[in-house]
Amino acid sequence: MVFHAYDEGIPCLVTMTYSDKDSMDDLNLPTVIPVDENYGRFSVLEEEDRDASSAYSMASSAYNFRMENGRRYHDYKDGHPFPHDEVSEENEITMHEMCLLIFEDKYFLSPVDESNLRAVADIGTGRGYWAEGVADRFPDAQVVGMDLTPHARNILPNCSFMLADATEDWVLDDPSMKFDLVHIRSLFGGVRDWAALYKNCFDNMRSGGWIEQLEIEIDAQTQDASTPPDSHIKALCEYTRSHLSVAAGRDFDISFSMKQMIEDAGFVDVQEKRINIPLGPWSSDSRMKDIGRFYERFYKTGLQGWLLQVCTRQLNWSVDQVNAACVSAFKEINQRQQHWYYPLVIVIGRKP
Ligand SMILES: C[S@@+](CC[C@H](N)C(=O)[O-])C[C@H]1O[C@@H](n2cnc3c(N)ncnc32)[C@H](O)[C@@H]1O
């Protein structure tokens, strides 16, 4: 099996044969998410569920020191449409912890030769949770986190952070560095030119290195009859996909096209995996229930920031309209009657 080939003593990735039976299929998660029949009975609602629903009010009160409509943004290059503040920090760490739970504490699914992992890049690293985690776990690897936002700290000797636009030429401290693994997570709605970004990844990787990208697909779905016809959650997904990409000049739909674009950039053995992530703790499966809690928190700490700048600057919404849309969606979650899930799409590919 290609993803386990290094376990079987094959030293060089280039020599591995490709098979579609691999660790991408081996996460021990149910394909159809089982429903907890107690979900939605308020007598059994857990404290943590109540707490999760307060994330929006935290966004508008406790974190009250931001520069545009109550949120703080950075303006490096042509800026970024999403805030960079304490709420977005909570959003990032929630995504990071959720991914560790989904992937059973693995930082990547690509079949890299871990014993020979020397150079790793994390593109759009944000606060660098993933980059620091990999640097900690692989002390012989040099990890570079690249982002449009400056990084506040540098605590591990083998982890550095680079202030750069990943769609422009990469000027690395060590120009001879070629990456064994390039990781991209949660950049939907942030990048103007994906083809340029994938080309830079390709050009800066060594032959046999792997690219890995994870994106939430903005497409709320239910697997049963729990979808209300007038759902705000669903309507916001549809509005985002029909209006926000064009208005922002950045692709909110990258999950749909990244596999093809990664192939177009020259990568081979490109594989896609889709995992359904419950929105809220509605599953009877205990791991899925926890994943659902994390995803609810990710949604509640993210939604206002994903909408606010683009809707108010380009689409003529008022701040109150944005906040009302968020509150309507959160109320729908808090009613605990629906079994929404969103696909998390993972694509991996190898540089030949
Ligand atoms: C939602 S955060 C994701 C952070 C991190 N990847 C994670 O999963 O925790 C998206 C980050 O991508 C960065 N970003 C967006 N476009 C970028 C670009 N062209 N070059 C570098 N970073 C970019 C943003 O500044 C932001 O910090």
Summarize this structure briefly.
Pfam families: Methyltransf_23 (PF13489). GO terms for molecular function: methyltransferase activity. The chain is an alpha/beta fold.
The best one-word shape is globular
| Integer-rounded radius of gyration | 20 Å
| Number of helices, counting only DSSP H or I runs of 4 residues or more | 9
- Could you give the distance between the termini? 18 Å
Tell me, what is the CATH class?
A: Alpha Beta
* Average predicted local confidence, pLDDT: 85
Instruction: State the share of residues found in helices, binned by percent.
Output: 25-40%
Largest sheet: 8 strands, mixed
Spans where pLDDT lies below 50 across 5 or more residues: 1-20, 47-66
The total number of structural domains is 1
CATH architecture: 3-Layer(aba) Sandwich
Fold blueprint:
Blueprint: H1 47-52, H2 55-60, H3 86-102, E1 119-123, H4 129-137, E2 142-147, E3 159-163, E4 179-185, H5 194-203, E5 205-216, E6 221-222, H6 232-248, H7 254-264, E7 268-278, H8 286-314, H9 319-334, E8 340-350
Parallel strand pairs: 1-2, 1-4, 2-3, 4-5
Antiparallel strand pairs: 5-8, 6-8, 7-8
The structure holds S-adenosylmethionine (SAM).
Question: What can you tell me about this protein's structure?
Answer:
The protein is of the alpha/beta class and 352 residues long. It has one domain: Rossmann fold (3-Layer(aba) Sandwich). Helices cover 34% and strands 17% of the residues. The chain is built from nine helices and eight strands. Strand 4 (179-185), helix 5 (194-203) and strand 5 (205-216) form a beta-alpha-beta unit. Helix 3 runs antiparallel to helix 8 (286-314). The two termini are 18 Å apart. Mean pLDDT is 85; it is low at 1-20 and 47-66.
